[in-house]
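User: Okay, second chain of the day. Same drill as before: sequence in, structure tokens out.
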Amino acid sequence: LFVQAAEWNLVAAEHVYCAISAFFQLPPFWDKFASSTKLSQLMSACTFLAVAHGNTCDAQKAYEEVKQALQELFDGLIAEHGTDAPIRVEKRHARTGNLVIEHSTIAQVTSSVLQNLSDAENMTRSLTSWILEFYQMIQSFLQDENATLDIPLDEVPFISSDWNDNRRQCLLTLRDGKIERDKVQSRHPELLTLQSSNLDGRWRQDLMNRKPFLQTPPPKLKIPALEPILNAKATLSTPFPTTLFSSRLTSGGNSEMNLVNIDQSTPGQTCVNVSFTNVPLNIQGAYHAITVRCGFSAVTPSTLTAGSFQLIDQRPKTGNDVIADPTITTGDWRPTVKTSFNSAGVVWRFSNTQGIFPISTSLPARDSAEALDVLQSYVSLFVQAAEWNLVAAEHIYSAISVFFLLPPHWDDVESSVKLSKLMTTCHDLALAHANTCDSKKMYEEVKQALQKLFDRLIAEYGANTPIRVEKRQTRTGDLNIEHSTIVQITSSVLQNLSDAENMSRSLTGWILEFYQMIQSFLQDENATLDIPLNEVPFISSDWKEKYQNFLDSYLVGKVERDNVQSKYPELLTLHSSNIDERCGQDQMSRKPLLQTRPPKRKVSDSEPEPTMTAEETVSTLFPTTLFSSQLTPGGYSEMNLLNIDQTIPGQTLLNVSFTNAPRDNRSAYHAITIRCQFNAVTPSTLTAENFQMVDHRPKTAKEIVENATINTVNWRPTVKTYPNPAGVEWRFSQSVIPIISTSLSADLKLTLTFKHTVDLRIFFDVRIVHWHWMLWKTKSKANTSIVIVA
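Assistant: Same drill. Structure tokens below.
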């Protein structure tokens, strides 16, 4: 019922579009249209509005019934199970389409569902009222016996002076609604029966089904006498004008044919006046030629002969007849007219004056292969600049993800962990800054080169030389064919380049400011990381709001990026499937060129220093990053070697940290497995004499919960360890139910203690498990290794 109500509203939107199209044809040509044409357009608008009103009324009633039925259902569930009974809810995110699995209660789900139904009901009620108000506004004029259509436009009571703005706003609203409709239809094809492919058929079928039940009163206003073509006195036996057909043709737009009048004042002779109107839905429905065929046949089973039928005249015959007739509206289209007739009919063919290459406007088109080739070469440079910005956005996301791991646990983690996170943030910001700088420079070069090209074209052809431009609408993907001039295109292209350049400049400035804010603290010899969170100069008190705002902006940008990538697959080389790989390649190529200064921070006196013998030397600066990467679909993952303690002869203690921050709900993890395997560096086998595992931590969930340096947020995992003679494996999974995911970040600390008399190579293998609908699972993998000298 809910889907049926939604589809009634979608069909109503199509009827409203037709009503608006018919209504807003009048204002620009009000003083040129005959009164009969005005009346026909107003009656058509009323018909479409009445049909739309029938759909929204049905939708509103259905929403009310569904709401009442669900209220009774939820009341029964609450009475049986209680308001706080847990329930699992699966839904898709409205903007990103990601699958979201939430755990809630019956009371919360009841409130959410009923609120959504109330919102849909209120929206439908508002739409119904607006349609009824629009309909009554026109009908109040048509039912006024003292009113007349033969008045100037500024005296028409139902057409305001800002009608063009109102029309534009209506069309924009309907367009946005169409975009949202297409998104919903693409996400739920198995749920909706109404699709873009069958919408026209459903719209026409609905019109046919509802039209016989409409009770639209005939107009009572004054209509000036109609003048027939042959200037004879008309005798009307039919209420004119009469609509012969009114239909939305596939790709042709809204078309309507009306019988204006029939004149039989001359005995044995009939003059028929017919009007035809076509309004393209968009540029794809623009017409290049219109053919109207008129055929005569006898009603009784007989053949027309020269004695029973004779065609005397037909108008128009030439393009001048069309242009000279004030009752005919062609806009800026100046057609040629060709007529052909025989003893039983006539055919009119209206086509563009260009003839062999018909276009839907009289503006001339000029092809320039030279300019096109040059422009295409600059398009590739523009795309490269755009892709650098997209890669920069991924580096920024990594930096932000690492940075905002600190505030919630600042007072619990060691200074070494804080330093590691800040250094990683600076590293990712430096990569992003390099990309945006390259992008900004590329935009500047393209802009400068195109300025020279356009200056040459203007000097050669003139500023006002018309050109034809084909482009696709950014949001809808519709093909737009426009006719403009060189100077207008120059202004538009250079303005878009300036906007892109300014955006890159702003992004570059923001990245640099963020980077310098952290570096100024790290380069301060008097600064320390052992201070409370509220005293940290680069973390504000509203960090949660800033983090959420960034994530919202990132998700919106990601959706827009995916939309652009899906529309231009042949233009862009960067896609959702290879963006992680491209970011990894970018990091490898730029990392050697980064000049990040080492920190000068003062280590807190309270932080214990490891005890070392005089013979020991430190060859590694801790903490050291073992790997840091974006896993697909595991999100951002990082493993750090915190320290190595060899103070006890023949024994090594290893401290390792692992961090995982899901990018979105799709990369939320259900379980994390970390394997640690020991091998001898030299070609020899580990034995009980040269290697022995002494201890490994953690072994239980209690150790994780009680360890203040381990951050699991609200995730309380079970811990299973599988030691063997040459290694150990940890498995962290959700407690109680192991296949419930979490999108919260996790920090884990691992400790290994072992005795050895040979040099060891330790392999770490990380696997992040993600279940899909509890049916199958995918794994994200990462690995690294280190060498420990005996």
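Residues 225-238, 353-370, 602-620, 736-741 have pLDDT under 50 and may be disordered.

User: Thanks, on to the next one.
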